[in-house]
Prior knowledge:
Blueprint: H1 3-9, H2 30-42, E1 51-54, E2 59-66, E3 72-77, E4 84-89
Antiparallel strand pairs: 1-2, 2-3, 3-4
Amino acid sequence: MSDENLACRAPGGRDGAGDCSSKADHAPTSEERTRIEAKLKELGFSSWEETELEDNDTVWEVSDAIGSDGAEYEIRLDPNTLQEKSRMRD
């Protein structure tokens, strides 16, 4: 976790109440990455580039994912269930 996120969550953080209105995007931990990669493979993707938790921790965004059709997609997954929320062709 970045120092910025620690400051946001600590009492008296950036807004003085221990919460931040805007969290920075962050990459998955090794455990999260393992779960996300398994889900992407289950969905038929063979490779992908960057994975980040975005939109105030409401979605995992996976960029440049190559589907079974050979096309490139941006995938959005629910951070808790890893259910696919959207798939947009690049």
